[in-house]
Amino acid sequence: MTDFTPLAGLTGGILIGLSAVLLMGGLGRIAGISGIFGSLLGRWLPDNGWRLTFILGLLAGTVLVSLLGGFDSDSMAFPGNPLSTLLGGLLVGIGTVLGAGCTSGHGICGLARLSVRSMVSTAVFMFFAVATVYMMRHVIGA
Amino acid sequence: MDKLTALLSGLLFGAGLAISGMVNPMKVQNFLDVFGRWDPTLIFVMGSALAVTYAGYRLVLNAPRPRLAPAFVLPALQGIDERLIGGAVVFGLGWGLTGFCPGPAIASLVFGYWPSVLFVAAMAVGMVLARHLFLGSDETLSADG
């Protein structure tokens, strides 16, 4: 069980939006985490410097908020087991490369640009994520 | 300066994920459990993020170019193809299964729980694998985000 926390949600969302606007206004880049992280995995690209500092900032921001008491990591819980976590990670990695984006790149930045590709992508991954959880929790009963 | 700006942007993103509770995969999976223990928080996160980004993009994309770079790098891909749909299906399955998508999963690494580490490692393997299988190159990645 997790509590419905609309105010914390709105506040966090505003910060995420500001992050996306800053990256576009400053560097002209989409704040899509799968693209930023994935580009760091292969051969080093000439413009990977900003990607690396972005990811470092992402980690630092999370640490900062939890140090200031804005998030309690003891409240965290992880669905599933090692096998489902491994499988889920593989699927998310493959799916975001194939579909060219994730919740941030398509779901926030793409929708904000009114991109039809992003609207379709977001609708499809939302539907299949909801369907997967429905199957797991209410059909199989895991 | 561009690296500092990216650092600040990442900082805001991570802070947003933590404050909203999205780094907790159970909270995200409960959002996806529309017919069960539904926690609608994620709608508010995406809603306000989208509103701010929409308004902010209208402002900054009006400029001839970004402040610290020669040009805006916007997705060139057009049209809906099976790759876009297939990718979204596969991503949705993994997201539902774990409650993790890339941003929150990476951010959650700082707390040192093993599922975060296992998920991010598997995700990295999946990304490299998919690039070799489907894109035929390890350099070109993601046009949309």
> What is the N-to-C succession of helices and strands of chain A?
HHHHHH
Our estimate of the beta-strand percent of chain A is under 5%
What is the H-and-E element order of chain B? HHHHHH
The biggest chain-chain interface is: A-B, 119 and 125 residues
Rounded mean pLDDT of chain B is 93
Measured on Cα atoms, how large is the radius of gyration of chain A?
17 Å
By oligomeric state, this entry counts as heterodimer
Using the alpha-carbon principal axes, give the shape of chain A: globular
* Gap between N and C termini of chain A: 15 Å
Total number of distinct structural domains of chain B: 1
Summing up helix and strand content along with how strands pair, one would put the structural category of chain A as mainly alpha
Beta-strand content of chain B: under 5%
Estimate percent helicity of chain A.
55-70%
Number of domains of chain A: 1
Q: Give the structural class of chain B.
A: mainly alpha
Pfam families (chain A): Sulf_transp
Membrane topology (chain A): Multi-pass membrane protein
InterPro entries (chain A): Sulf_transp_TsuA/YedE
Main location (chain A): membrane
Describe this entry's structure for a reader.
- Chain A: One of its GO terms (cellular component) is plasma membrane.
- Chain A: The chain crosses the membrane at residues 12-40, 52-71, 83-102, 114-136.
- Chain A: It is found in: Cell inner membrane.
- The complex is a heterodimer of chains A (142) and B (145).
- Chain A is 69% helix and 0% strand.
- Chain A is mostly helical and 142 residues long.
- Chain A has one domain (6-139).
- The radius of gyration of chain A is 17 Å and the shape is globular.
- Chain B is mostly helical.
- Chain B has one domain.
- In chain B, 63% of the residues lie in helices and 0% in strands.
- The mean pLDDT of chain B is 93.
- Classes of the chains: A mainly alpha (142), B mainly alpha (145).
- The interface between A and B is large, with 119 and 125 residues.
